[in-house]
Amino acid sequence: MRLFLVIFVLCAVAQYFLPWWIVTPLAFAAAFGLPTSGGRAFMAGFNGVGMGWFMLAVWFNVKNEGLLASRVAQLLPLGGSSWAVVILAAVLSGLVGGLAALAGSWTRQALAPPPVAPAR
Amino acid sequence: MKWIKALLATALSLALTWVLNTKQGDIPPFGKFLSPFQGFWRNAEPANGFPVAQTLTLPGLQQPVQVRFDDKHVPHIFAQNDHDLYFAQGYLTAQDRLWQMDFVTHVAAGRLSEIVGPARLETDRFFRRMGLKFGAEKSTAAMLADPTTRTVLTSYSDGINAYIQSLSPRDYPFEYKLLDYAPEPWEPIKSSLLLKYMAFDLSGRSDDLRLSNALGKYGPAVVQDLFPDYPQREDPIVPVGTPLDFKPLPAPPTPPSFTAAMSNKVAQNEPDPELGSNNFAVDGKKSASGFPILANDPHLQLNLPSIWYQVQLSAPGVNVYGVTIPGAPTVIIGFNDQVAWGVTNVAADVLDFYQLKFKDASQREYWHDGHWKPVRRVVEHIVVRGQPDRYDTVLYTHHGPIVYDKDEKPFMTQTPTRHAMRWTAHDADNEVLAFYKLNRARNYQDYTAALSTYGSPAQNFIFASSQNDIAIWPNGRFPLKWRNQGKFILDGTDPAYDWQGWIPQQQNPHVKNPARGFVSSANQFSAGPDYPYYLNWQYGSYERGHRINERLARMTRVTPDSLRLLQTDNLNLNAQLMLPRMLSLVQGQPLPAAQQKVYDELSRWNYFYEADAIGPSIFELWYSNLVKRLWDDDFGLQATGLEMRAPSRDRTNTLLLQEPTSRWIDDRRTPAKETLETLARLSLQFATDSLTRKFGALGPEWRWAHQKSTDILHLAQLPGFGRLDLNVGGGAGIVNATSERNGPSWRMVVALGPQVKAYGVYPGGQSGNPGSAYYENLIDTWSAGQLTELVFLRSPDEKHPRVQAAWTLQQK
């Protein structure tokens, strides 16, 4: 939960000022600094980055009444559903965040075994 | 093992990040594009997010500028000097249309490959070889040499650049994010390129080669018969009998007859028959108000963002409303409180090809006027996204560029190879000054003074004033030609074939306050055979113009609504003329049941191309297939091995109506002897079968709007970003010239008087942003044939129920 919150807040703030790919080093570093199992790191990264994208995309989509995203959904093509584009954005960013956090977690584990067994 | 896992995960994570940040072919960089922090979501404008009041501080302004926006999102700009006026026009146009104007200049300059990669390399080569930039450079120099237009063009550019500089990548228009590139600074030459692109659209094609081939195959007598210099049915813009108010210059002598050598490299792209336009004006004697009323609807390709952008421009000495081409300053079609004006294309022959004789295969010298003259070589540097740059050498003679100098497949096959091109769009003229003066015109004298600097593309400038003058001038730069000069390919070795001067601008065709009480144009002949100069042998066909004149002649007590209804008139004179003849051709023998039903349906039809009518779907297929059967064996590429054009609609109709024994009727590919009756039956069968295959048995599914399917596509043809299958009538050769992809790109009606009132609409919206509610909000009004009253403010503070937003632009 802590790792998720750190990634969520850090990435949201950073992306406001920096290119989107800043989530990769940030999720990596957070998972490296806050030891946890690989699976939990991935979930924290997936949700931490994906949730930020999901919430903001929902906000824009609602305010715009789905106008632009439904056009994009015809272009991609996703059947014209603006919500499909919201989900796609959330899942893609989640994968980036999750993979980066997993990499960070495993890199730490390679350097030194976790000091304590992961909490159940 | 742990290290391997860690490295693998890290590598995978970095690879995914890289992939999502990089454009892969046509696939956008999904990470950048889909990010709600900086990607396309940022262009999703909130439904009610437009600021009603704000102050923008812009570097470069001299004094504060007031801007009001009406409910259609049209900016009404009130500036205190010309510099600020055009600065604000540039800034606000860019705010709505930056991607569009930038994209079109990339097309015109032959720089599309920079954006989209090697797929558009041939397009780029073509526009460079056509010399659009060559012409734009000359015109830009002329316009910057004039102090007035220098101010207009440079401050307009500065305004656009002020907007571009205010953007960070997250603010870029949608298409930049999709195509993954960035806006570049604007320069005056880009405005000029836009006008040259318009010139290409309207005058950049030529039949010279295909007619030369017909001349070579069939000889002068046949060509004279099938491609006559003046049609049988015509209703010219300047009425026959209009007295000349000038003494004409002698035309240059016609050189001894010349037959162009045939070439196997030719054109297939005919100018689109619906790239035409209508304009008309009635005088005060014919109107209910006692003041003139003027209407205009330019027909162009229907795209989103719209070709036009509405604006009101006010500063000391000017208060004008109308439409502009995004990227070009001033109002192009519009009105002020004294005058209104509009344009349609002239279709004069202003592009000719010259056959060259080179000294040797190196093509460095060509023979002209008894000398070997040097060929100028210009190296074009083309940047290609994702590939090394390309270099392309274009050869220039004193005529102009040699569009293709070796055997290759031309981008537009109408272009003959190893021929030099002469085209008015390559000449330096000051079109912006003409529009600058028209925007400020108060009377007929101002209007004619404005026309004097206009060059290309030649337009029929229609005019009306509150002093009760109406007028029309087919106007532009017209070469002084001997009769039929440029109907065929010209001899490039003999100076007698060169363009030897210009028709003096004051002697362009014109008519002011004609006795019939109206003026009009629909791309037909500029004047009758009594006009002393040769302009062209062929124009737009007469049907639209004649229908307009017929209705205007009958009208009395005209109101703006009368002219609106005329703009949406759906009667097809071609069907009216030809259907009775075609029906009589298939009478006599019994028809199969399906064709008999079709026959009965057509017998009841009134020749109107309404959206719900079934007649037009059948007649269009029947007639076009009949014409194809008539000419394909004599002029088709497959049958003759030569690129030739078929005779015009007027000539074809005369044959179908009056020449049942003509040698052209028989299909020479078959042993049997065909008659008109045979061809008519076969083509009726074709029409019936193809509609049945498409829509089932004859019924409401056959409706015209369904068969025609008018589409408005996004400029880059992005699926989902246009509007398809509009429920509209009209079509080619009809006053309401709404065909599959072309149509009235702006409909305007202006009623002059003590208080000018104007109405207009275009099929799109003010915003170029597909994420804006103003992207296509005017389409439904347009489809319904309705107009919206245009808000014309007298002062920046005027109270108006449709104007809420008030912005201030101020200097830094």
Automatic annotation (TrEMBL), chain A:
<keyword id="KW-0812">Transmembrane</keyword>
<keyword id="KW-0472">Membrane</keyword>
<keyword id="KW-1133">Transmembrane helix</keyword>
<feature type="transmembrane region" description="Helical">
    <location>
        <begin position="41"/>
        <end position="62"/>
    </location>
</feature>
<protein>
    <recommendedName>
        <fullName>Apolipoprotein N-acyltransferase</fullName>
    </recommendedName>
</protein>
<feature type="transmembrane region" description="Helical">
    <location>
        <begin position="83"/>
        <end position="106"/>
    </location>
</feature>
Automatic annotation (TrEMBL), chain B:
<dbReference type="InterPro" id="IPR043146">
    <property type="entry name" value="Penicillin_amidase_N_B-knob"/>
</dbReference>
<feature type="active site" description="Nucleophile">
    <location>
        <position position="277"/>
    </location>
</feature>
<keyword id="KW-0106">Calcium</keyword>
<dbReference type="InterPro" id="IPR002692">
    <property type="entry name" value="S45"/>
</dbReference>
<dbReference type="GO" id="GO:0046872">
    <property type="term" value="F:metal ion binding"/>
</dbReference>
<keyword id="KW-0732">Signal</keyword>
<keyword id="KW-0479">Metal-binding</keyword>
<dbReference type="InterPro" id="IPR043147">
    <property type="entry name" value="Penicillin_amidase_A-knob"/>
</dbReference>
<comment type="similarity">
    <text>Belongs to the peptidase S45 family.</text>
</comment>
<dbReference type="Pfam" id="PF01804">
    <property type="entry name" value="Penicil_amidase"/>
</dbReference>
<feature type="binding site">
    <location>
        <position position="349"/>
    </location>
    <ligand>
        <name>Ca(2+)</name>
    </ligand>
</feature>
<dbReference type="GO" id="GO:0017000">
    <property type="term" value="P:antibiotic biosynthetic process"/>
</dbReference>
<dbReference type="InterPro" id="IPR023343">
    <property type="entry name" value="Penicillin_amidase_dom1"/>
</dbReference>
<feature type="binding site">
    <location>
        <position position="352"/>
    </location>
    <ligand>
        <name>Ca(2+)</name>
    </ligand>
</feature>
<dbReference type="GO" id="GO:0016811">
    <property type="term" value="F:hydrolase activity, acting on carbon-nitrogen (but not peptide) bonds, in linear amides"/>
</dbReference>
<dbReference type="InterPro" id="IPR014395">
    <property type="entry name" value="Pen/GL7ACA/AHL_acylase"/>
</dbReference>
<feature type="signal peptide">
    <location>
        <begin position="1"/>
        <end position="22"/>
    </location>
</feature>
<protein>
    <submittedName>
        <fullName>Penicillin amidase</fullName>
    </submittedName>
</protein>
<dbReference type="InterPro" id="IPR029055">
    <property type="entry name" value="Ntn_hydrolases_N"/>
</dbReference>
<keyword id="KW-0865">Zymogen</keyword>
<keyword id="KW-0378">Hydrolase</keyword>
